[in-house]
Amino acid sequence: PFAPLGDAVGLMPPPPVHVEPLMPAGPRQRRGGAMAFLLDIAPIFGWLRDYPVRSALAHDISGGVTLGCILIGQSLAHAKLCGVELIIGPYSCMLGPVLYAVFGTCIHSSIGTGALICLLVGEVLVEHGDSVEERSRIAPFLTILVGVILTLMGVCRLSGLVRFLSRPALSGFITASALLAMLSQVSPMLGLPDSAGSIQKVLLHQPERLLAVKWPTLLLSAVATGYLLSAKRLKQHPRLKPLGDFKELVLLGLGAAFCAAWDPPGLSQAECVEHPLCVKVVGRIEPGLPHAHWPRVGAGDWGLIHSMLPGACLVALVAFLTSFAGAKKFGLEDGYQIKPFNELIAIGMCNVGGALLGAVPTSIGNTRMGIARQCGVQSQLGANVFVSIFIALAVQFFTPCLFYIPMCALNAIILIGSSHMLEFAHAGYLLEFARHKEFGRDGRMDVLVWIVGFVSTLFLGAFKGIISAVVLSLLIIVLQVVNPHIALLGRQQEPPQSGVPHQPPRFRHRWVNMRGQRASGGLVATAVEEEPGVLVFRFEGPLFYANVDQLQEWLEAEELRRIEESPVDYEFKAIIFSAIAVPFLDTTAIGALQTMIRSYADRNVLFLIANTFANTRRIVAETLGADQRRALREDLRPRLASCTTVDDFVELVHANRALSKERPRPLIRTTSSLLSLASLASLNATPPKGTLADRQWPLQRRPFSLACDRTPDAEMGRFTASTPALLSLARPISPRDRAAAGRARPFDR
Question: Which DSSP helix (H) or strand (E) runs through 702?
Fold first, then answer.
């Protein structure tokens, strides 16, 4: 039963790591009606009846004892981080683990106090309680709020809400919170009184207080910190492995023995604080188990509960996010299912039930999950139930042993535990992405979110910090949806595959981003070139009312760029829209696409949509297929239904142009078009018969004057014409006209 303790002295081999899932998953366990509902809510009734007592009980008991020893030391330190009475830490780890074993789905999850959650809880409680006693009294109110919020999220299936906490936002928030927690432990580790405040306040406003440093406390804090930092190295030695596995418990035990021998006898707590050689200890703690009762709500507590609600929402979201992420990781690695619904209900019930014992909010400890796996825990009995029993026995019989535990040892545990939460490495990872050209914009946005989360948490507090980062993340999402990336695609020749003698042309081309193509695999990529006369692009994101105008503007700008950079005889034949990255279209986008298809068809330019899929393919076929067919020659219209890829549509474009006698009319830039009018000899004369200008000339709508003092051919006087007539008379600008346009002064309209 005590295999890890035996292994510590070299008497037993380490337990097996492999875990067989004991969760209900087989068809025999699936029943209808009330039994199925009971198994969905409380999975313990499914796996407990199949529990292999002979093969699993010994590993579960040994793992429970190991986790219990670790959790006692951690919970005392976490209670100090919350600013409540220290005994509330072990109280928080009694009833919650049992409730999680009933409702939870992760075998290795170890319910208890956590450093990150206690950081947030401490900040919320400090705002509403001035003393340790007052914070201990209102802590169950916060725990109930957290539990109710998580339970309601589970009932309403709102696990997706936590996805709004992006990884960069959470990383910056956690890093700043951990840094604040580390700084808050420095003053007590120096032996300064609580009235001195944080080390920042001491250094900036009261540096003379550093003369009151207690050297015994400082030396003991340094030794404790050094021991905790070297715990990983101790684990590498078989005979010293228990000193690394149970480092918190060993540190508290050795610290208590030192203080019992060092501190002068007969001093009270107040006298010990003032004595220069005395190390502050925990002091007397009321022995025995707590009495279960609901927190008493006074007349003035309703306003307090209302004011704690925003902080409770933040604690609940972070608790579920960190817990579910760790549970999901272990479930994927060991092959059992983790259900968000059950996890929300389980963690919520842990906190609601824990409030009966005056607990602070709890969550799943990711570090303890790894220890549970190493100990060979094979069910939630070992990860939670036996841990709860061990802690209850320790509180009942060994509470007097906590008297001489030095407070600076708890501060050292918090300091080292918080240092493990620093995620500056993740910030460096984001910077590497920001430097990458292909991920430049998205990478820079993630770096900005991380910085905002870090700075706002550091200077505004945890709640305002995480809210600022989340709001910025949502704004970036909106901007990315409204302003999505549009990739200009070019044709890249692929080498023929071996063993395939006759390959269709479409299988020898790859359509890649012209502006982001890089060599991969150490091989130089083949040249990427544009399809002559065809604009191929990929729209990356949903196409709807908020971004369809940007698509139109981009197409106009890209068409003008091609025309102006190409020879005079360049023909702009078609636009091919690759919709492979468009998940859906709304009615506004469909209407805009219909308008574009028809307007381009009036200019003898095709607008075709390729690579559609699923719902997008059905919408395009039903609403836009007729317009695309009408733009084609009659002989080619049946081929449209068989075209799917970009290569198919490129072949269709060239076939249509070969059968068409009319040249495509290109788009013209307004200022350049008016300049090119000056080269027409018939400008002051009547337009040619039968042209569009001839039909619109008599309308004389919106007349305006155009004056120019320098033209490519000759001086031009004032003239009057209608806007449609001017645009229809315009022709593609020549290099000579373009050079003259650069020398001409702006027009007066």
Answer: none
Share of the chain above pLDDT 70, in %: 79
Quick one: pLDDT band at residue 691, thresholds 50, 70, 90?
Answer: very low
Q: Please determine, for residue 375, whether its predicted confidence score (pLDDT) is greater than 80.
A: yes
pLDDT on residue 675: 42
Q: By the 8 A CB rule, do 581 and 542 touch?
A: no
Element (H, E) at 124: helix 115-128
| Rg of the Cα atoms in the chain | 36
Instruction: Tell me which residue has tokens 């008599």.
Output: 698
Q: What does the block give as tokens for 737?
A: 């006209």
Q: How far is CA 680 from CA 188, 462, 674, 688, in A?
A: 88, 70, 11, 12
Question: β-strands 111-112, 509-513: how paired?
Answer: unpaired
The gap between the terminal CA atoms of the chain, to the nearest Å, is 94
Distance in angstroms (rounded) separating the CA atoms of residues 343 and 338: 8
Window from 88-102, 460-474, 544-558, 669-683 with minimum mean pLDDT: 669-683
The residue assigned the tokens 């725990």 is: 143
Dihedral of CA 164/169/173/174: which sign? positive
Residue 505 CA to its chain's centroid (Å): 42
Over pLDDT 90: what percentage of the chain?
34
| SS3 assignment for 374-441 | HCCCCCHHHHHHHHHHHHHHHHHHHHHHHCCCEHHHHHHHHHHHHHCCCCHHHHHHHHHHHHCCCCHH
612: enclosing H helix or E strand: none
Q: Where are the alpha helices (DSSP H) in 503-642?
A: 548-564, 587-602, 614-619, 625-630
Task: Look at residues 464, 422, 360, 469 and name the one whose alpha carbon lies nearest to residue 182.
Answer: 422
Amino acid letter, residue 332: L
SS3 content of the chain, % helix, strand, coil (to 5): 60, 5, 35
Do β-strands 485-493 and 534-540 pair in parallel, antiparallel, or remain unpaired?
A: antiparallel
Q: Comparing 195 with 727, which gets the higher pLDDT?
A: 195
> pLDDT (tens digit, 9 = 90+) per residue, 435-492?
876 666 677 888 999 999 999 998 888 788 888 988 998 898 888 888 888 999 988 8
Dist. CA 71–CA 73, nearest whole Å: 5
Res. 141: pLDDT tops 50? yes
